[in-house]
Amino acid sequence: MSSRTTKPYRRGDHVEGWIGGTRRYDIVKEGVIALAVMSLFTVGLAVLFGSPDDQPVTLRSWSQAAPADFMAAALSELDYSSEVAGYGPPYTGDTSAAQKIGPLCLQCIPGTRIPIDTAQEFVIKPLQTETADEPALADALRTYAAAPAKQQAAWTGAYGNALGSIRQPAGGINLPRSDPAFGPVALMMQEELRLAQSGGLDGALLQTKQMYQTDYTKPILFISGGSYFEDQAAARHLLGGQWGMMNETGSWPGQPWLWLYSFWYQVKPFSDENTTLGANADAWIWAIMMVVALLFVLLPVIPGLRRLPYHLKVYRLIWRDYYRTVEGKA
Amino acid sequence: MKTETEPVTGADTTWTGAIGRRLTRELPPEKVFPGRQPVYVQSWTYVFGVLTIAAFVVILVSGVWLSLLGPAWWHTSKVGLFVNSLHFWSVELFFVVMVVHLWGKFFMAAWRGKRAMTWMTGALAFLLSIGCAFTGYLSQQNFASQWIASEGKDGMNSVGVGAFFNVLNFGQMFMWHILLLPVGIGALTVIHVLMVRRRGVVPPYLAKNQAPSDVLPERIPADTEAQDGGAR
C-alpha cells in the first residue's frame, strides 16, 4: 500500500478508501515476536508455579476415610432416597424434581437417556459379583429381591435408623448389632462396605460388556451422594456459593472467565433454594447466560448497543496518538 | 501422439476457477501479507490479537506434547507435570490476552464498516474457547475434574443438554477437548483473521470538526454516523 491513493472514500470501506498516511508493518515479524513472548511467559509461569493435581476421590478412599458417610450414602441408593434416585432426566423417569424455566421443562425433553437404577447399579449388581464365594450373601440378595417393596423399605428403614442412632467415630464406623428387623440388609451393607474398602466397588461400577472403559458416570454420581466429597470441595473453596466454578484446587487460578456465570449463584433469589427461582437456579442461570451470549455475538446488529462504544469514548484513549495528530493539525 | 483437447472458450467456468477468482479478488497477497498499515494502527491495543493467536499456538504445541504419551502420563512423570504446567499457564495467558483484545475491539466498535462477521466469528471463538477450557478441566483425571463434573452436570441437565453432552463421561469430554473444539476454534480463528485482512483494520471514529486533508478521506461524511455505518 502506498502512502497515498486516489481511490475515493466509500461508505463502510474504510481501509480501501483510506487516503491518509500509512506506516511500515511486518505481520510475520509481529507474529514471531508475539509467539516468543507468549512462550517465554508460559515457561516462566510453569517453572515458577507448576500446576495443580489433587488426587481424585475413589469409592475405596471414601469408604476408608469416612465409612459411616459411605454407608449412609449407599443405603440411600438402595432405598431410592438419594439425590440421584430422585434426580429426574436423564437418569430417572420421575420428572417431579426436574428443573423448569417457568412452565418450560427443558430437562424433561430428552427423557431417561442415561438410566440409573441406584439400588441395582450401586449396590445389588456389584454385590452379585461376590456371591460365588459367599453363599450367605447370595441368599441375602435372593431374599431381598423376592421381598415386596414395602418389606424392603421396612428393612432399609430399620437399618438406617439403627445406623443413624449410633455415635460414629471420626474415620471409623460402629455397625448396628444384629437385629431380625434388618432382614438381609445388614449383611448386604456390610458386604458393600467391605467391597468398597477393598477397591472392588470402583471396578464393579465401571463394568460393562467391554473391557476398555472411559465413562465414569456411575462412580462420580455415587461419590457425589455422600457428604465426604462435598466436604473435600468446601475445604478447597470449590462450592458454588464460594465462587467455586472459577476456582481451582490450591492457590492456582481456575476459570476466572466464568465469573459472570458464577456470579448469579451468589445472589438472591438464585442463591436461596427455598424460592422457586432458587430451586430452578441452574436452568434459569443457563437461560440468562444464553441470552447474554446471544447479545454478545449479535452486538454489531443490535441498535443502541452497537453505538455504545462511541458514547463511552474509550476509543479516544486507544487512538490518542491519531487524534493528537489530527486535532493538532486542525 | 495426437491428443484431443476441448476448445478454449473464454473464461474458466469450473467451480475451481470460480473459487480461485473469488479468493484472488477478496484476498490478494498484498491484503493477506500487508507491508504497510494506516497510521492509526499504532496502539498497544492492536498487539493483543496476535498475542491471542500466539498463546493458542503454545496451547496447541503443549497439548500435542501431552497427547504423545496419553492422558495419564502427566500424573506419573515430572516431565509430564511440567508439560501440563505449560498447557495450564498457556490457557490462562490465552484468556487474559483474548479478553483484553475483546474489550479493545469493543471500545473501538470494530464491527463498523461491514465488519460484523469479523466480530461474530471472534465472539464465537471466545465462547468455544470457554467450552474447550471447561472440557480440559474435565479431562484432568483428578479431584478438580471430579468436582467440576459433579457440579457441571446439574447445569447441563437442567436444560436438557446433559443427556447428550455428558460431563461425567471422560471419554466423550476428552474427545471434545482434544479434537472437536480445537478444530472449531482453529477454523474460526482462520476465518476471523482472513476477514480482518479482507476489510482492513477499522479506522477511528471521525474526530468532530476535524478535516485535515492529509489524514482523512477525500469525501468526509456529514457526521460520525456515516462512518459508524453499522453492520451490513
Can you characterise this structure?
- The complex is a heterodimer of chains A (330) and B (232).
- Chain A is mainly α.
- Chain A is 49% helix and 1% strand.
- Chain A has helices at 27-49, 59-65, 67-78, 118-128, 135-146, 149-165, 185-198, 200-204, 217-223, 227-235, 259-264, 276-279, 281-297, 308-312, 315-318, 320-329; one strand at residues 22-24.
- The longest helix of chain B has 30 residues, at 78-107.
- Chain B has 232 residues and is mainly alpha-helical.
- The chains are: A mainly alpha (330), B mainly alpha (232).
- Chains A and B meet through β1, α1, α9, α10 and α13 of A and β1, α3, α5, α6 and α7 of B.
Largest sheet of chain B: none
Structural class, judged by helices and strands of chain B?
mainly alpha
The major beta sheet of chain A can be summarized as:
none
Distance between the termini of chain B: 56 Å
The number of distinct helices of chain A, counting runs of at least 4 residues, comes to 16
Q: Could you state the order of secondary-structure elements of chain A as H and E?
A: EHHHHHHHHHHHHHHHH
The topology string of helices and strands of chain B comes to: HHEHHHHHHH
Number of strands of chain A: 1
Total helices of chain B: the number is 9
Classify the beta-strand content of chain A into a percent band: under 5%
Overall radius of gyration of chain B: 24 Å
Give the uncertain stretches of chain B in residue-range form: 208-232
Query: Roughly how many Å apart are the termini of chain A?
Result: 26 Å
Label the structural class of chain A. Answer: mainly alpha
Low-confidence stretches of chain A: 1-14
Number of strands of chain B: 1
- How is the quaternary structure best described? heterodimer
Mean pLDDT figure of chain A: 90
